[in-house]
Amino acid sequence: GLVCRDISYGQENIPIPATNLVDNPPVPPSGFVYSKSLQIPEYIKIPADSIGCNCKGDCSSSTHCLCAVHNGSDLPYVSRQKKLSAKHVDSTHKNIGRLVEPKAVVFECGANCSCHCSCVNRTSQQGLQYHLEVFKTELKGWAVRTWDTILPGALICEYTGVLRRNAEVEGLLDNNYIFDIDCLQTIKGLDGRKQRSGSELHMASLQDEHDSEASQAPEYCIDAGSIGNIARFINHSCQPNLFIQCILSSHRDIKLAKIMLVAADTIPPLQELSYDYGYGMDSVIGPDGNVVKLACHCGASDCRKRLY
């Protein structure tokens, strides 16, 4: 059909409707399987959980939180709800936070932390919080818009799919849903990326002892070609309203960080969501050795006219 009431089929906290008023392909795309969490193949070993904090309740009310220390002494989130007194906090109250600023990496509380599962420093673990819609466009294929007002620093969604080694997917030019986990490159400020708050703090602690300057390329990526979540429908813009944030919770391997999309500005209802895909010009080479070019239709006033 041309309308789907919920492309997540109940996996998300909030249904995600999809509409196609442009052409005839089914909604959602045929062959696509929704998955709210990252699929990890057996041959990729996720490191053991790291040491957690021993806070009680919510870490925002703790004076000696180990996870806050990892973030440079302050928690990365500010609560978007009025603080409730401790006796009124119950298991149904989620202390959802907004990110104070884009950071090199955010250290969240994880499996070995003793704080409550609704702690503000577990914001990326609380699932979808906004009413979003997937819709078909004339020029850009599928897109995502919000029905809610979203405030700056709000976490929208994780980018999910199948975790793969980059070596596996090299040369798959027909798959436009490969997302490099390039958090270390962001921290180092490589490829023209702007270094963020906390880069210097984490540079030493996140350097792998086996790291050589030769291993500058991301080792892992997320393949959302046939399995993924709403993030794979969010388009590129040369003037985006979202940014990418790397998050670590239960382990400390930056090469396997969680990828979250976060609001950069206040986003009004019915506005399309977008982020910068980060391609360099002439960076995609076809099997024949020639540069592959793809036009950009984002419509921004400073559009580069090409995605790559």
Number of helices: 4
Shape: globular
Query: Tally of extended strands?
Result: 17
User: Could you state the oligomeric state of the chains shown?
Assistant: single chain
From the helix content, strand content and strand pairing, which structural class follows? mainly beta
Low-pLDDT stretches are: 82-93
Strand order within the widest beta sheet: 1-2-7-8
- Whole-angstrom Rg: 20 Å
Helix content: under 10%
The average pLDDT is 86
Terminal Cα span:
33 Å
Largest beta sheet, briefly?
4 strands, mixed
H-E string: EEEHEEEEEEEHEHHEEEEEE
Classify the beta-strand content into a percent band. 15-25%
Mind explaining what this structure looks like?
The structure is a single chain. Helix content is 7%, strand content 19%. The chain is mainly beta and 308 residues long. It has a domain at 49-77 and 95-121. It has a four-stranded mixed beta sheet with strand order 1-2-7-8, with no helix packed on it. The longest helix is centred in the middle third of the chain and has 8 residues, at 199-206.
Short description:
The chain has 308 residues and is mainly beta. Helices cover 7% and strands 19% of the residues.
Q: Topology, pairings included?
A:
Layout: E1 3-4, E2 18-19, E3 33-34, H1 66-70, E4 77-79, E5 97-99, E6 106-107, E7 132-136, E8 142-146, E9 155-158, E10 162-165, H2 166-169, E11 178-180, H3 183-188, H4 199-206, E12 220-223, E13 227-228, E14 235-236, E15 242-248, E16 258-263, E17 274-275
Parallel strand pairs: 2-7, 3-13, 6-15, 14-17
Antiparallel strand pairs: 1-2, 4-5, 7-8, 9-16, 10-12, 11-12, 15-16
Domain Pre-SET: 51-127
Pfam families: Pre-SET, SET
Keywords: Chromosome, Methyltransferase, S-adenosyl-L-methionine, Transferase
